[in-house]
Structure formats: C-alpha cells, structure tokens
C-alpha cells in the first residue's frame, strides 16, 4: 500500500525541530528515508537540507519506498 506523497514543506515542518528552516543530520534521524538519502538531498554539501533542496528532489514514500 502506498503512503501519500509529502511535500517538501510538510517534511521540513515535521523534521525541523529547532525551527531554523533546515534539516540537520540529527533531525533527519527521525525519518529513515530522508536519513538514508541525506547526502543526495543536500545538494550543496553543507550538512543541512534546505526547503529549496527538498523541493529539488521528489520525495515519494511507498511500501519499500525511497527518493525519485
């Protein structure tokens, strides 16, 4: 069964615990798919995932899902 697509804003809001507008590796631990794909999403390699970087990739969750 597929889990609905989540927008970058939804993911950012859910994972950005310190409300700085970015997801750190420590915050990404709460989501196995984001954590596994962290380095691919972090386009500029600064160790943080920004809203822009999240919207640059399509995060699609499905049973056994991943990033597309």
From TrEMBL:
Q: Where is the EF-hand domain?
A: 29-64
Q: PROSITE patterns recorded for this chain?
A: EF_HAND_1, EF_HAND_2
Under InterPro entries, the record lists: EF-hand-dom_pair (IPR011992), EF_Hand_1_Ca_BS (IPR018247), EF_hand_dom (IPR002048)
Among Pfam families, the record links this protein to: EF-hand_5
Q: What is this protein called?
A: EF-hand domain-containing protein
Source organism: Paraglaciecola mesophila
Biological classification of the source: Bacteria, Pseudomonadati, Pseudomonadota, Gammaproteobacteria, Alteromonadales
């Amino acid at each position: 069964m597929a889990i609905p697509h989540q927008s970058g804003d939804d993911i950012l809001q859910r994972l950005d615990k310190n409300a700085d507008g970015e997801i750190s590796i420590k915050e990404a631990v709460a989501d196995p798919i984001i954590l596994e794909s962290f380095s691919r999403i972090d386009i500029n390699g600064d160790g943080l995932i920004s809203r822009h970087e999240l919207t640059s990739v399509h995060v699609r969750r499905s049973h056994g899902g991943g990033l597309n």
